[in-house]
Specification:
By secondary structure, this protein is an alpha+beta fold. It has two helices and three strands; from the N terminus they run βαβαβ. The chain has one domain: Ribosomal Protein L30, Chain: A (2-Layer Sandwich), CATH 3.30.1390. The protein is about 30% helix and about 25% strand.
Length: about 60
Protein backbone atom coordinates (compact mmCIF):
# COMPACT_ATOMS: atom_id res chain seq x y z
CA UNK A 1 0.00 0.00 0.00
CA UNK A 2 1.35 3.42 -0.96
CA UNK A 3 2.03 5.97 1.74
CA UNK A 4 -0.12 9.06 1.90
CA UNK A 5 0.92 12.55 2.93
CA UNK A 6 -1.44 14.98 4.63
CA UNK A 7 -0.36 18.52 3.70
CA UNK A 8 -1.71 21.56 5.56
CA UNK A 9 -1.09 25.22 4.71
CA UNK A 10 -0.08 26.96 7.95
CA UNK A 11 1.25 30.32 6.71
CA UNK A 12 -0.24 32.94 4.41
CA UNK A 13 0.61 33.14 0.72
CA UNK A 14 0.39 36.95 0.73
CA UNK A 15 3.66 38.53 -0.34
CA UNK A 16 5.20 35.22 -1.49
CA UNK A 17 6.86 34.67 -4.85
CA UNK A 18 4.52 33.74 -7.67
CA UNK A 19 6.09 30.30 -8.12
CA UNK A 20 5.46 29.46 -4.45
CA UNK A 21 1.83 30.55 -4.76
CA UNK A 22 1.45 28.40 -7.89
CA UNK A 23 3.03 25.40 -6.16
CA UNK A 24 0.68 25.70 -3.18
CA UNK A 25 -2.28 25.96 -5.57
CA UNK A 26 -1.09 22.88 -7.45
CA UNK A 27 -1.07 21.02 -4.12
CA UNK A 28 -4.68 22.16 -3.65
CA UNK A 29 -3.90 24.58 -0.82
CA UNK A 30 -5.63 27.94 -1.19
CA UNK A 31 -6.54 29.08 2.32
CA UNK A 32 -4.76 28.83 5.66
CA UNK A 33 -5.55 25.53 7.44
CA UNK A 34 -6.71 23.93 4.19
CA UNK A 35 -5.64 20.28 4.05
CA UNK A 36 -5.17 17.83 1.19
CA UNK A 37 -3.96 14.26 1.01
CA UNK A 38 -1.50 13.21 -1.69
CA UNK A 39 0.30 9.98 -2.54
CA UNK A 40 3.95 9.97 -1.50
CA UNK A 41 5.73 10.40 -4.86
CA UNK A 42 8.96 12.20 -5.74
CA UNK A 43 6.98 14.85 -7.62
CA UNK A 44 4.81 15.69 -4.62
CA UNK A 45 7.86 15.61 -2.31
CA UNK A 46 9.58 18.15 -4.58
CA UNK A 47 6.56 20.44 -4.49
CA UNK A 48 6.39 20.19 -0.70
CA UNK A 49 10.11 20.93 -0.46
CA UNK A 50 9.61 24.14 -2.45
CA UNK A 51 7.03 25.46 0.04
CA UNK A 52 8.26 23.65 3.16
CA UNK A 53 8.31 26.90 5.17
CA UNK A 54 4.56 27.37 4.52
CA UNK A 55 3.17 23.87 5.11
CA UNK A 56 2.96 21.12 7.71
CA UNK A 57 3.31 17.53 6.48
CA UNK A 58 2.10 14.37 8.21
CA UNK A 59 2.61 10.81 6.97
CA UNK A 60 -0.49 8.65 7.09
Amino acid sequence: MAKTLKVTLVKSLIGRKQDQIATAAALGLTKIRSTKEHNDTPTVRGMINKVQHLVKVEEI
